[in-house]
Design brief:
Radius of gyration: 21 Å
Shape: elongated
CATH architecture of the largest domain: 3-Layer(aba) Sandwich
Order of helices and strands: EHEHEHEHHEEHEHEHEHE
Protein name: Nucleotide-binding universal stress protein, UspA family
Number of helices: 9
Strand content: 15-25%
Number of domains: 2
InterPro entries: Rossmann-like_a/b/a_fold, Universal_stress_UspA, UspA
Largest sheet: 10 strands, mixed
Family: Belongs to the universal stress protein A family.
CATH topology of the largest domain: Rossmann fold
Amino acid sequence: MNSSPTEAVVVGLDTSENARVALEWAADEAHLRGAVLRVGHAWSMQAYRLPEAYKTDIREDARKAAWTFLESAAEDMRKRHPGLEVEPELIDEAAVEGLLRMAANDSGLLVTGRRGLNPFMTVLLGSVSEGVAAHTPVPAVLVPTEGAPDPRGPVVVGVAPGEPEPVEFAFAEAERRGVVLKVVRTWMYPQAFPGHVAVPPQEEARRTAEETAELEKLLAPARAAHPKVEVAVRIELGLAEEAVVNASKDASLVVVGAHRKHTQHFSLPIGRVPHRVLHLAHAPVAVVPH
């Protein structure tokens, strides 16, 4: 680990099992990067339906309890990686706003659990992880409760046309881990009828050649910057989210881009493919903003 870390990995912590897994993943990543680990824990009196006078009486005790929980978790990470610099911080504002504020200050990565304390409310109300993914100024990693299927598995990146940001991030992560980088690209063809796609052989060959040429052009700068990374490219007919999720079964990390310019009012503002990958991938998912 570097003796003088210059960037930070920020992680959100609550009392859920998933948050603890995310904390450990973030600590491992900070150690790998030689970075400071900043742990944010949001606390609030709003959950207590008490008169304001009573809230004032218990506020200090509640804050002390929150700090004890946070510092205990921070100390566990110091023991996990001796020498790791860990900075705990109580978040007085809402969790999403607090984590985004922390991430905006010399941070290279923002990490949360995929599910929080109330996963059943995710679809209706959104969650901290979804809010972070939608608005983060830096790459954000959402970690499932199961962690990574294989910590030494490949890094998987889904690459859409004209999207260099996740490519560079994925190459750097694969190099940092010393693992293979799997690059996934898909293309679609009109269905003859629902559920059936018949592509003439000449058309399939033409499209595959076009996708290969465009993809290799997009990969070229990152290949040059990270010549030691072994790259496996897969181009196939089908849904992008399905291909990426299938490739994540043995992955250490999945990387996707946030397509915020394609936002629709009824969907998470990062695009359809990243949204579905976040919910269904078997490994931690990094969302890289444009």
